[in-house]
Amino acid sequence: MKFHALICARAGSRGIKNKNIKKFKGKPLIAHPIQLARKIKKFKSISVSTDSKKIANISKYYGADVPFIRSKKLSNDKTGTMEVLIDAIKKTNSVNEKFCCLFYPTSPLIKAKDLNKAFNILKSKKNADGIFTIAEYNSHPMRSLILKNNFVNFKFSSYKKKNSNDLKKMYFDCGNFYFYRTKKILKKNINLKMLGFKIESIRSIDINTHDDIKLAKIIYKNNNY
Predict the structure, then answer these.
(1) Which of 8, 17, 98, 153 has a CA 20 to 30 Å removed from the CA of 75?
(2) Model confidence over 65-121: pLDDT tens digits?
(3) What is the C-alpha separation between 141 and 143, in angstroms, rounded?
């Protein structure tokens, strides 16, 4: 059973200009997920959905297909991921494939074993519609602080005296990769039953700032990538 992998990489980005083609360990960020996907035997092809001819050319150089240039309508800050994914499924003739995979260029610390393990979990859970990476918050969000007139206040005052170790663990969406059952994605406006694939928070980086890049490089260097 093989199916398509999709990498989303539009030109616009708020935090870092031209983020998806910034160099990371000698290669553009977009190169890392492409080379990672090529290690996964279950992917029949790797397609990049982008509105940029420059990103398209770089993607092709590293071995991905770019069968179409994404429309401007699906390339702004307000466009939902599902809209982009459905568009790509249809344009790559993948509507009859059982599964689909979506991931981003901004997660260079993900490994092939992560993708393989997550997919095997989804495949074994017949009642699940998909699976995506999550990581535990390092600092519990219910003890978040806010500033009011430069003075510190608890956002949730009822948790002021709570010990973080006594609170139920909470997780965030890492934004690394997502596996879905294709037929569920194509049924718009349904509540998907998603599994969480836990990874170490140190590897959950989704690059949005220059500090993220610096930290990712340190982790990359010290973890034998």
Answers:
(1) 98
(2) 999 999 988 888 777 888 999 999 999 999 999 999 999 999 999 999 999 999 999
(3) 5
